[in-house]
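Incident log, structure service

09:12 report received: a user says their structure output differs between two submissions of the same chain.
09:20 pulled the input from the user's history:
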Amino acid sequence: MHTAIEAIIIQGHRPKLPYLATGLGSLGWNVRTCESTDTLGELAESCAPQVVILENGDSDLRTAVGIARYGVPNAALIVLVDDADVDDRIVALDAGADACCLMSTDVREICALGRALSRTRKTTPERSGRDTPLWRLTHSGRVLAGPRGQSLPLTFTESAFFLRLLSSPGHRLPRERLVTTPVVGPRRRQSTRSVDVMVSRLRAKAERLGVGLPLLAVRQWGYILLADVAPDGQGDARPSTAPQSSSQSQANYIN
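09:34 re-ran on a clean worker, output below:
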């Protein structure tokens, strides 16, 4: 006899697998559904899920997976993708999914995978409070909150920017990985330049609201978010290993 799994399924208003929730429910799962990651936080607060299933829809997959992973870090995250989309499976796994399933996968196999992943999550030590970033995204990723009660509203593009930084090891990424919509070919340089333009506008907005951003810009490389900077000078405010180029890139704070 299997223990009931608490699960949240994220599907668009036109789900590709409309029978998934009822199918898992018939196998003993307690299933709740929502149409986007915007309401995931509210559902998770009322009852923490063991498994989150995200159906690949019209929204940016990398961002959707990142929000789901950041919003419910202790849940097993399964992403459902179209059978032929190998690139989507790679994107989902790189963004933080624990597993990918094809849309054609039998619901019984998804059920067994969810049970296996939830067992793995139970055996993994939970992060301590010290490991939780003091700077974090709230309100479904649309607000950047700081340790002194700072609150900076974000556009969708700005939210995706901070989401990728917070979801990356060390909270650091090159500009190419921070482009919301990657561009290849001759426009690649222009596309990465758009990240700097966005940060400049973000800096101006933060200054108007009196919010100092612990954002480190590394010349000719990318950005580092010092998400573990503690108030009143507590804690280590320097990254352990700042990336360097062959010309010894200079780093400057954007405050």
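09:41 both user submissions now match this output. Likely a transient worker issue. Closing.
09:42 reviewer note: Residues 130-254 form a domain with the Arc Repressor Mutant, subunit A fold (CATH 1.10.10.10). Confidence is low (pLDDT under 50) at residues 124-130, 182-190, 231-255.
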